Amino acid sequence: MSEVEDFLTTQEEQEIVAAIREAEKNxxxxxxxxxxxxxxxxxxxxxxxxxxxxxxxxxKERNAVLLYVAVHDQKFVIYGDKGIDAVVPDNFWDTTKNxxxxxxxxxxxxxxxxxxxxxxxxxxxxxxxxxxDDEDELSNEISRG
Length: 145
Ligand code: CA
Ligand code: CA
Prior knowledge:
This protein is 46% helix and 15% strand. It contains 6 helices and 4 strands. The protein is of the alpha/beta class. The protein has a 4-stranded mixed beta sheet with strand order 3-2-1-4, with helices on both faces. Bound molecules: calcium ion (2 copies). Residues 24, 30, 136, 138, 140 line the site of one calcium ion (CA).
């Protein structure tokens, strides 16, 4: 869909991938970004479906996080795996969500995603610090619906 193509320039995409790489320097957690135009399903359910399609449960500590964005619907969901849910409070993602929301409202999508990714990395660091034997368990490339 052209809408998704137009959403981010190649340059902006590269900045997001760089942010993921940067965020993962602080934590053993894995962060992925998925962008699509819209979803007929409830966005939370759709994020969960994408999480499984991308096999994001394939981490040793079950600590992957998906930032799902439906461009046309102007919706986003942050979905963290059960390893994260087990150790963090319910409002854990609020600061990350706020970072994203603020920029999305102003139409700064790239900056919203970059800030959200970096914020998620910092939040995860406290519970899942980076280890010397860290592996990049999940691709840092953006996934498109
Ligand atoms: Ca890793
Ligand atoms: Ca990764």
